[in-house]
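Notes to self after the Tuesday call (sharing in case useful).
The group wants a holo model before anyone commits to mutagenesis around the pocket. I volunteered. Ligand is 2-deoxy-2-amino glucitol-6-phosphate. Logging inputs and output together so the record is complete.
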Amino acid sequence: MCGIVGVLGKGPVAEQLVDALKRLEYRGYDSAGVATVENGHLGRRRAEGKLRNLEDLLKRSPLHGDTGIGHTRWATHGKPIESNAHPHMTDLVSVVHNGIIENFRELKEELIAQGAVFTSDTDTEVIAHLITRELRAGSDPIRAVYHALKRLKGAFALAMIFAGFNDLMIVARQGSPLAIGYGKDEMFVGSDAIALAPFTDEIAYLEDGDWAVMTRKGVAIRDRNGNAVERAITRSLATALLVDKGNHRHFMAKEIHEQPEVIGHTLAAYVDLATNRVDIPALPFDFARLTRLSLSACGTAFYACLVAKYWFERWAKLPVDVDIASEFRYRETALDTGGAALFVSQSGETADTLATLRYCRAQGQHILSIVNVRESSIARESDAILPTLAGPEIGVASTKAFTCQLTVLACLAIAAGKARGVIGPALEAELVQALGEVPRLMATVLRDEKPYEALGHQLSKARDVLYLGRGSSYPIALEGALKLKEISYIHAEGYAAGELKHGPIALIDENMPVIVIAPRDDLFDKTVSNMQEVAARGGRIVLVSDADPSSTGCAVAAYLAVPPVHRFVAPLVYAVPVQLIAYYTAVFMGTDVDQPRNLAKSVTVE
Ligand code: AGP
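Result:
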């Protein structure tokens, strides 16, 4: 996962930059670099591999500037080679970036047509050239950055320094977190408070859309419209061990908000957004030769497997068996010799999942697992692992790990479709590009939580709640019900919308909130019919959709707007609304959101 740092120091900052980057190593990376302003000029050192390679380079060829930025890169666009390592720069500006610039291709073509010379395959380099074009047109750095930011589409965090400006750094946050550290006549910026812990514990977290002009005397923060805003300075408890809540009330809230960033980092490990191609590590089996794939997990991870069933069968034409591990392990089902079994687990320690893995191994299956903890038992007993890069998930209710699991499963389904000859280059590019838009789409949902707060207040009075969804939204209905019940203790049930008339419709009355997960896809109209059946019986409908409620012909009690999404990635984006619904309901219930009663983060016993 990429990490960015910046220092406006009292002396040479290269060593401080590397020290801060070392505290971001836990995020994973494949190259690193620093840049400083020295005698008015920008200097840069970059190295592939671990930070010690950068340190060795700086010993051989030091940088002396006291204004600088640094970066650890996990390649999203372009191979992990030195020329793609950050910082990216021109002679006027140097920039480090964490996230995804979705429209970088059109910007790159525009800039090349105007004479810009690119030296990397990255999306980040377009930012350096955009700002340079503004500077050469006569803007000062602040105006240049303001205009450049208006052109960028995606989720990103940025730090920039400028030739000729020794007491200036401009930073921006759009979907990926950024923390400002306050020192004595020195200032700092980092991807999180852990990076800044050696320098200061006085931290202000930028909000989405913020950008800030930093000097050694202080910071001027502006919102996306250029209006001056204040961000609270908190005392950070961050150490390498204690992951802190940032400026959130609960770990669960922080982890919901981390999703745009960690989805970007997880994607980076499995796709190349410069070419819109999947890039999956070698697997212990050939998808082309599989007749069936078995998926198994527990809880939220099982719902990720249910979504994956729709993806593998629709896009790869690969039949999939999915079952909860506690049932799979005792069914003694017959499995094709040489078949493949895929296990999904955040902790990698869930007893039922591990036992099912061992059952499948005994049945001669190739074992693949998707885990968030690489050194876990399930990982160690797998033939191959596909890690999620969600970072530590502290809240018992799984959120960012779930959407990172979906990200890996989506990439795997594309790879399976390619191997089985049913996904060609054009469709591959379409699906990968859709995945590349997910961080921004999630950030858009997270921009306005007021409707969720209002709904949470209403739902906190409910006794039962019903969630409905069709197709790949059905598992999201199940996940939404699980989220609500496990942290608010309100009984909730997820149902396939098409099943309403087969029983649950008997539950419908004015006391039963019905939450309908309905992206405007080819099943939307059928789900609208179910909404009308609910409305006709006085049910209180909460519509979660990109469709305008008026198009349904139903009166809805609440409407949670989601931006239009490609049908392939709807489960990823619609996971955020159901997480927020559960979170705010639990907050109003006054339950222990991060440590709900009776629950453990990892169920290591049967
Ligand atoms: C998710 O919100 C729950 N905490 C729980 O269902 C969890 O997903 C399940 O126990 C599986 O855990 P794992 O992913 O670590 O295997």
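Two things stood out.
The radius of gyration is 24 Å.
Residues 298-301, 345-347, 350, 353, 396-398, 486, 602-603 surround 2-deoxy-2-amino glucitol-6-phosphate (CB under 6 Å).
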